[in-house]
């Protein structure tokens, strides 16, 4: 993402979408009631009453809508922003939907920009390389792609080994080749993990064609092994800026503090009390609860806390959801 203009006195930030994952950041930042402007296409209105015997023409216009709802489709990275037109064409009050995609410029106007929203946009301007995790054993290999907001299971490949077939090297070669073909097609750094020695045999088979990779142990294959690799910091060793790894690490720290009765609060009431006393160092809020917890977020920022918005589309986010969608790491332990 590129920030083209920032005028907080006027409440305006103008951005250019450069990558489909920028749509995730915009989905988190844009709220109901915001005014969003962009170039778009609308059906050209005929002034006469002639019957429309041919396909309606579209005209290029620059309009502003007042946002009423939004939709983000995970793993396709599609963002739709819908609202009533307030400026730009004659049809004031009519509905329009922006389909946000790379190359598109958006002007976002808010009554008040929150600190975490500005930080989120700044973070989106940095390059965030993608990566893949392969969690494998001698029976199957699960390949998962890490996005900024979650983990996508791309494919599970089965070795087909059983009984006497287990020692068939040609069968093993076919299994490894299928895995390698998938990895090469994605052309991103890869973490190859799993129990036992199967991952090492695969690396020996494929290392002449692998470029940026790391190998490590986890206790299981499958998506369980993928998440274990993320929690253990395997991903961060190869890609320090991955958002999912960072969010997962934050939730692991929360769970650790809970288990030992430490400096932590979770659930709306506990967190509200911690915020009011100024004890919060880091506030974690599930992405789909931003509007609901707006007052707590604002108060936490006023009290000097750092705010992080956690995606619900990975294991860490699911743990936060189970805690009520909001938690905080504290400067000191509180008794509730």
Task: Summarize it.
With 336 residues, this protein is of the alpha+beta class. Helices cover 31% and strands 32% of the residues.
Description of the molecule:
The protein is built from ten helices and 16 strands. It has 336 residues and is of the alpha+beta class. The chain has three domains: 2-42 and 58-124, Roll (SH3 type barrels), CATH 2.30.30; 131-238, Nucleotidyltransferase, domain 5, CATH 3.30.420; 243-330, Ribosomal protein L30/S12 (60s Ribosomal Protein L30, Chain: A, 2-Layer Sandwich). The strands form three sheets. It has a seven-stranded antiparallel beta sheet. Strands 10-9-8-11-12 form a five-stranded mixed beta sheet, with helices on both faces. The protein has a four-stranded mixed beta sheet with strand order 13-16-14-15, with helices on both faces. Strand 5 and strand 6 form a beta hairpin. Helix 1 (22-29) packs antiparallel against helix 2 (115-124) and helix 7 runs parallel beside helix 10. The longest helix has 18 residues, at 169-186. It is flat and about 70 Å long.
Defining key terms:
SH3 type barrels, Nucleotidyltransferase, domain 5, 3 domains, alpha+beta, 60s Ribosomal Protein L30, Chain: A
- List the total number of helices: 10
Strand content: 25-35%
The secondary-structure element order is EEHEEEEEHEEEHEHEHHHEHEHEHE
CATH topology-level fold name of the largest domain: SH3 type barrels
Mean pLDDT: 91
In the CATH hierarchy, the architecture of the largest domain is: Roll
End-to-end distance = 43 Å
Compute the gyration radius: what is it? 24 Å
Shape: flat
What strand line-up does the widest sheet have?
A: 1-2-7-3-4-5-6
């Amino acid at each position: 993402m590129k920030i083209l203009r920032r005028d907080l006195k006027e409440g305006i930030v103008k951005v250019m979408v450069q990558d489909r994952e920028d749509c995730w950041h915009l989905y988190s930042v844009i709220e109901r009631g915001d005014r969003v402007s962009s170039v778009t296409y609308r059906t050209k209105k005929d002034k006469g009453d002639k019957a429309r015997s041919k396909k309606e023409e579209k005209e290029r216009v620059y309009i502003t809508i007042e946002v009423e709802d939004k939709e983000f489709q995970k793993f396709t990275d599609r963002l739709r922003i819908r609202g009533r037109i307030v400026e730009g064409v004659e049809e004031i009050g009519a509905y329009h939907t922006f389909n946000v995609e790379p190359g598109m410029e958006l002007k976002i106007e808010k009554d008040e920009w929150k600190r975490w929203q500005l930080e989120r946009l700044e973070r989106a301007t940095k390059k965030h390389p993608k990566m893949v995790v392969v969690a494998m054993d001698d029976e199957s290999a699960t390949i998962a792609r890490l996005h900024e907001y979650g983990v996508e299971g791309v494919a599970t490949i089965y070795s087909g080994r059983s009984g006497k077939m287990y020692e068939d090297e040609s069968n093993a070669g076919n299994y490894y080749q299928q895995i390698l073909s998938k990895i090469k097609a994605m052309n991103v750094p890869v973490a190859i993990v799993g129990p036992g020695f199967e991952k090492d045999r695969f690396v020996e088979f494929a290392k002449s064609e692998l470029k940026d990779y790391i190998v490590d142990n986890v206790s299981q294959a499958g998506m369980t092994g993928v998440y274990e690799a993320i929690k253990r910091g395997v991903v961060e060793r190869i890609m320090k800026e991955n958002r999912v790894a960072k969010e997962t690490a934050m939730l692991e720290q929360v769970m650790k503090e809970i288990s030992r009765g430490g400096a932590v609060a979770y659930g709306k009431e506990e967190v509200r009390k911690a915020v009011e006393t100024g004890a919060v160092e880091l506030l974690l809020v599930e992405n789909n609860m931003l509007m609901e917890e707006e007052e707590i977020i604002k108060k936490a920022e006023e009290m000097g806390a750092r705010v992080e918005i956690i995606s619900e589309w990975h294991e860490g986010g699911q743990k936060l959801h189970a805690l009520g969608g909001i938690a905080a790491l504290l400067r000191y332990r509180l008794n509730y």
